[in-house]
Amino acid sequence: MFGRLRHPLSAVAVTMALTLPWLFIWATDSTHSLGHLQTVAVSGVAVLGASFMLAWAAETAEEDVPRAFALAVLAVLAVAPEYAVDALYAWTAGANAGTPRGAEAANLAVANMTGANRILIGLGWSAIALFTVYRAGSARDPAVNKESGFLKGNVELDRDIATEIAFLLAATAFAFFVPFGGGIGMVDTVVLVGLYMTYIAIIIRGDVEETEEQVGVPAYFQSYSKGPRIASILFLFGYSGFMIYSAVHPFAHGLEALGQSIGIPAFFMIQWIAPLASESPELIVVAYLVNKARSTAGFNALISSKLNQWTLLIGTLAVVYSIAAGDIGALPFDEKQRAEIWITAAQSFFAIAILTNFEISVREAIGLLVLFASQIIAEFYVIQTMADAQAHEISLLILYAYTVVYLVLGAILFVQRRGEVRALFGRTVSNARDAMGGQSGRPEHAD
Fold it and tell me: Where are the beta strands (DSSP E) in 231-381?
């Protein structure tokens, strides 16, 4: 997109220009004057521009902090809108606790959270893997192994993401027990947020690796002395984070309104279309990295996003609910959302099993995508064609059936790859010991 712009700051100016129409609309509070399609167009373009700026910030930051930490910051900012949407529903549930409105809002919070998590794996991981292999046909990517034969080829992942995979597996194992508590409570918050904080404590103390040779905007900012370089990073992170946060909500709401105008149920929109919109910055950033033949960094960002959504996002719901309710409590959910949590955990279990050998093949990516899409299509068909009571029962059966499929496939892979699993946990323990032991062998970067 920016390859023909001669000076790197020209690319920054173009992305900034993409965000300015939305910045003006936000500053003048004139969103109400736009139609739904106009809102989607203007806010969507702003999200696109901000996503590029976010990617540049993360790439530039690799000069001064561990890559895993830079990507973790990127992941948090990219999915921050999803946190805000879920927090709104959790707050509404707490403020109306004990009422039908509160119960509906609580179910929407869980539905939005599970939808976001499943989209990130079912669409994000699979589509980016397929795009990576496809992109390697025209640009050499050292992470891609292309083989002759039908649907052959795979993407090799960075073995340093063993820590992320191990913590994601721990969070997934715990998530299976969340529905038994009758709601998302403070115990869940302590465990899940504690897992994420432990993960951050490990990666932030890792070594600053020798950065890959950058080009374009990141290379330009990395050439700055340390003070101006850090200021540039903070500006890019701050501005892009603000633009994504302010623009994604109207973007999602505009998509919801457009969907409802063509007959898509509101609950279905909130579970799938709104999270898809809020996940779009993350997917744009990763596609950008893959397009630069930086698929390793792209997948690291995707996995980091899944980890923070599967820990922080769930863990903060009970906190927001309790503050709004004025008392410590658990965010309640019904039988349908209990099944949604289980299928989300099962999908995560299967996806982690795929990554235990630090590869994702074309066939595995297609499997993730087909399972994800077929479940949504089947449930949408049921909702649209059957009476509410019957649709509810069949929807539950669909969710439980897919949960079993994910669990069986994941268990088979874990058994087949038990040696890789032991090595993965061994590497994670080693990383934790190194970090907690206070190693300080980080190379200094010259200004």
Answer: 331-332, 359-361
Q: Given the structure tokens 């809020």, which residue do they identify?
A: 278
| SS3 call for 155 | strand
**Which CA distances in Å does 231 have to 57, 202, 224, 248?**
10, 25, 10, 25
Contact by Cβ (8 Å): 276, 264: no
Residue 30 lies in a domain: yes
Q: Is residue 254 part of a domain?
A: yes
Distance CA 87, CA 350 (A): 28
203 burial via Cβ count (<10 Å: 0-12, 13-18, 19+): buried
Token pair for 174: 């715990």
Radius of gyration of the chain (CA): 22
Q: Note whether residue 120 is domain-resident.
A: yes
Q: Kindly report, residue by residue over 299-312, the tens digit of the pLDDT.
A: 888 888 899 889 98
β pairing state of 144-145 and 183-184: unpaired
Residue 331 backbone phi and psi in degrees, to 5: -70, 115
| C-alpha torsion 171→69→273→334, nearest 10 | 20
Give the chain's domain count.
1
Q: What are phi and psi of 147, to 5 degrees?
A: -125, 155
Instruction: Give yes or no for a contact between 349 and 202, defined as CB atoms under 8 angstroms apart.
Output: no
Range of the domain at 429: 8-207+218-436
Residue 443 lies in a domain: no
3-state secondary structure of 154: strand
pLDDT digits (tens, 9 = 90+) for 171-214: 999 999 999 988 999 999 999 999 999 988 888 776 555 555 55
Residue 184 backbone phi and psi in degrees, to 5: -95, 110
CATH number at residue 98: 1.20.1420.30
SS3 99: coil
- What's the token pair of residue 180? 């038994």
Q: Could you give the residue ranges of the DSSP H alpha helices within 204-225?
A: 216-222
In 357-438, DSSP assigns E strands to 359-361
**DSSP 8-state code for residue 144:** E
pLDDT of residue 447: 40
